Amino acid sequence: MLDLLGWLATAMFVASYFTRQPATLRRVQGLAACMWAVYGTLIHAMPVIVANLIVAGVAVASSLRMPAAEAVTSTPER
Questions:
Q1: By CB neighbour count within 10 A (0-12 exposed, 13-18 middle, 19+ buried), where does 53 fall?
Q2: CA distance 10 to 40
Q3: Are 59 and 33 a contacting pair, CB within 8 Å?
Q4: What is the pLDDT of residues 32-69, one digit of tens each?
Q5: Could you tell me which residues come within 8 angstroms of residue 40 by beta carbon, excluding any fewer than 6 positions away?
Q6: CA-to-CA distance for 63 and 60, rounded, in angstroms?
Q7: DSSP H or E run through 56
Q8: 57-71: string of b/e by CB count within 10 Å (b at 16+)?
């Protein structure tokens, strides 16, 4: 059952690359990193926990900042 969590987290990361919006990609990757952090907690692996909490934080924070930046760059030219 524990391995299943690791495989689901891996599948989530892979699936994130099929999203069309960069913000969505980062949010899905953030969720997958949280799953990896839980996995790391269950196997008592501090490097896995810390690395994935950092990745999740950066992924989610950058996804929340991106919509404003995308709005500026994606406006049609006149």
A1: middle
A2: 13
A3: yes
A4: 999 999 999 999 999 999 999 999 999 988 888 755 55
A5: 46, 47, 48, 49, 52
A6: 5
A7: helix 46-73
A8: eebbebbeebeeeee
Residue 73: its pLDDT value, please?
A: 54
pLDDT over threshold 70, residue 14: yes
User: Residue-wise over 19-37: b if at least 16 C-beta within 10 A, else e?
Assistant: eeeebebbbbbbbbbbbbb
Both structure tokens of 48? 């896995």
Flag whether the pTM goes above 0.70.
yes
